[in-house]
């Protein structure tokens, strides 16, 4: 119980910060970023999400965290970038119904191409979700199905829900240089996305060869260590300005 209060206080004090992993186009130019949560310790250590997200989710503090990340972005230097950047956040189904997240999204949507990413471990439930997505869509926001191809993100969601982006999970990209089977999987995902008029973002691009192969299949947006690792907003601004 005490730990829950303590984590809540940490979130309120912005101990968990928005890190940004750039999203790039074919030329390698930055067109946006995915916001990834990082816990910054007193000693300045940067803790990755798997250390704290499961606890935060188990205590139903995910919406509070997401709202905090959105608010921190809204108060950051990112707001002065003149270009219309794509900015994506990881949400859970519950976040979709949280009014404070809705309000924070309304603040960000005029400035960015705001993309809300979902990876569903529990199946998306019902008509309420569809209606809610529709409301976000009407306000100029977009949806991405994250980690596509893994157990958590099935094709079923593509037929039943109105997604705009599909993010191919990095486990497929990891294999394309060596495993012909994964080549077929990625190619078929790209074709499927084109037919459904979804934009594809390829995650986890780590090599030049992977990027070339993905280029050939018509992928136009990338994320991965080959381009950039997740970084603080300050570092992102430095890199962005120097381009
Ligand atoms: O950032 P990587 O650097 O380690 O992220 C690991 C996992 O944590 C990813 O699957 C990502 O979706 C999840 N994650 C990162 N930031 C957030 C966040 O703000 N909210 C939620 N719900 N998940 C996040
Ligand atoms: O939300 P999602 O699960 O897609 O979060 C993206 C995760 O992938 C984050 O943990 C991020 O740090 C990680 N990531 C991004 N690019 C790469 C990459 O090129 N290689 C690896 N191994 N991980 C990556
Ligand atoms: Mn994601
Ligand atoms: Na992913």
Automatic annotation (TrEMBL):
Renumbered to this chain, the signal peptide range is none
Keywords linked to the UniProt accession: Membrane, Transmembrane, Transmembrane helix
Instruction: Please list the residue ranges annotated as the EAL domain.
Output: 1-243
Report if keyword RNA-binding is assigned. no
The protein in question is named EAL domain-containing protein
* Species annotation: Photobacterium angustum
Q: What is the lineage of its organism?
A: Bacteria, Pseudomonadati, Pseudomonadota, Gammaproteobacteria, Vibrionales
Q: Which residues of the full protein are shown?
A: 237 to 479 of 479
């Amino acid at each position: 119980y005490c730990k829950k209060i303590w984590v809540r206080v940490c979130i309120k004090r912005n101990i968990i910060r928005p890190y940004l992993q750039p999203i790039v186009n074919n030329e390698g130019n930055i067109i946006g970023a995915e916001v990834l949560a990082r816990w910054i310790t007193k000693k300045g250590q940067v803790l990755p999400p798997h250390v704290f997200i499961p606890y935060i989710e188990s205590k139903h503090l995910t919406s509070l965290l997401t709202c905090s990340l959105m608010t921190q972005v809204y108060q950051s230097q990112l707001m002065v970038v003149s270009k219309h950047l794509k900015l994506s956040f990881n949400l859970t189904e519950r976040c979709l119904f949280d009014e404070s997240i809705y309000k924070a999204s309304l603040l960000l949507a005029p400035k960015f191409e705001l993309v809300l990413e979902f990876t569903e471990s529990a199946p998306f439930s019902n008509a309420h979700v569809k209606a809610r997505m529709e409301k976000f869509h009407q306000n100029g926001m977009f949806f991405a199905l994250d980690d596509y191809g893994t157990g958590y993100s099935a094709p079923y969601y593509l037929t039943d829900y109105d997604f705009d982006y599909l993010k191919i999970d990095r486990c497929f990209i990891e294999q394309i240089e060596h495993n012909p089977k994964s080549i077929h999987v990625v190619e078929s995902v790209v074709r499927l996305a084109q037919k459904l008029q979804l934009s594809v973002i390829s995650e986890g691009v780590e090599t030049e060869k992977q990027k070339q192969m993905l280029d050939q299949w018509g992928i136009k947006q990338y994320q991965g260590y080959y381009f950039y690792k997740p970084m603080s907003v300050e570092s992102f601004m430095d890199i962005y300005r120097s381009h």
